Amino acid sequence: MAFITLNRTKLKENYNYLDDLFKKSDIEWAVVTKLLCGNKTFLQEVIDLGIKQVCDSRVTNLKTIKGMAPDIETIYIKPPAKRSIKNIVQYADISFNTELSTIRALSEEAGRQKKTHKVIIMIELGELREGVMRDDLLHFYSQVFELPNIEVVGLGANLSCLYGVLPNEDKLIQLSLYKQLIEARFNRKIPLVSGGSSVTIPVLLQNQLPTGINHFRVGDTLFLASDVYNSTTFPFLNSDVIRLYSEIIELTEKPMAPSGEMGQNVEGHTFDFSGVDPDATSFRGLIDIGILDVEVEHIKPVDPKMKIVGASSDMVVIDVEENPRHYKVGQLVEFELDYMSALRLLNSRYIEKKVID
C-alpha cells in the first residue's frame, strides 16, 4: 500500500518560524487544517504545536477537532449551508458569512443552543468567490448588528483561490479602510481583519502589509512551504513535511511506444507516438497508486532521473530510462507533493498515513 508521511520535526520548525513572524507583526493567525481531511493522527500533531485557532471548510472536521481539543477556537471558513446550521453553531465558534438570511438562521440556532455565535463577514475584492459586494456592505452590517446571539468579530476577504487574484497592497488597503468605515459609521469595534492567507505571506515579508490587517489563515505554507504569491517554495521552510511513498510492483524493459490500433484511454485522452522510434526501449515500472488517489500531474518524483509517463485508475507508469540507480521490484519511490496532490491523497482511504520524526 502506498503511504504518505508527516514529518513531526519539520512541521514544528515551520510552525515556529511562522509563529515568530506573525508575533513580530502583532498578527493573530489560525492553522487551516482542511488539507488534512480530518485525519486524527495528523490533526493531533497540529494540536500538539500549541495552536489557539483552527480553520476548516468541513464541519465534520471541526467536530473531530472539538472532540480532540475542546478549548481550541474553531473557524468555519466558507458560507454555511442552511441545512448545516445546527452543526455550525455547535462545532464552529466563528463562521465566515456572506448571506443575511443565513446569519439570521445562525442567530436563531444560537439562541436555541444558548450560545453567542461569532461571525466574520467576507467582502468581495475581485476574486468573485465568496463576498458581499462593496456597495452593499454598510447596509449588510447594519442589519447584522441588530441580530441577537450574533457577535460580529471581523471582516475578511478571500483572494487567489479561484482566479488567482493576488492580495497586493492596494487590495489589502481597501480591506483595512472598510474596517475603519464600519467602525466609524456604527461606533462598533471590529477586532479582526482577516485579510491574510498563505498567499499574503510575501506581502508581510516585504513590509508591504497595511497595518490594519491583523489576522492570517495559513495551511499551504505551513505544511508545504508554499510561496503561493510567486508560485514557488520558501527556501527557509521545509517543503518536505508531507511526502508520498509508493512501491514498485513491476519493472521491465519495454518499448517506448505502444503498438496496435490506438483509441482513447480510461480518461478519454488520445496519444500520438508518431515521433517515437518504434525500436527504442527503456525500463518502465508500475507503482501502486493511481488517479483514483491523486492527480498525477501534481506529484513529482524526487529522483530527477525518473519521470511519470502515464496513469490509470490504480497504477502509475514510471520511466527510469536505463535504470542507472538499479531500482528493483519492492522498492519505494518518493514523491514531492503540492497542495492539490496532498489534498487528494489525504482524502483517499486507500493511502496509509504515517507520522515520522
Automatic annotation (TrEMBL):
Pfam families: Ala_racemase_N
Gene Ontology cellular component terms for the protein in this record: cytosol
UniProt keyword Protein biosynthesis, yes or no: no
Essential cofactor(s): pyridoxal 5'-phosphate
Alanine racemase N-terminal domain: residues covered: 8-226
GO molecular function: alanine racemase activity; pyridoxal phosphate binding
KW Isomerase (keyword) present: yes
Record's keyword terms, sorted: Isomerase, Pyridoxal phosphate
The protein, known as: Putative cytoplasmic protein
Species: Geofilum rubicundum JCM 15548
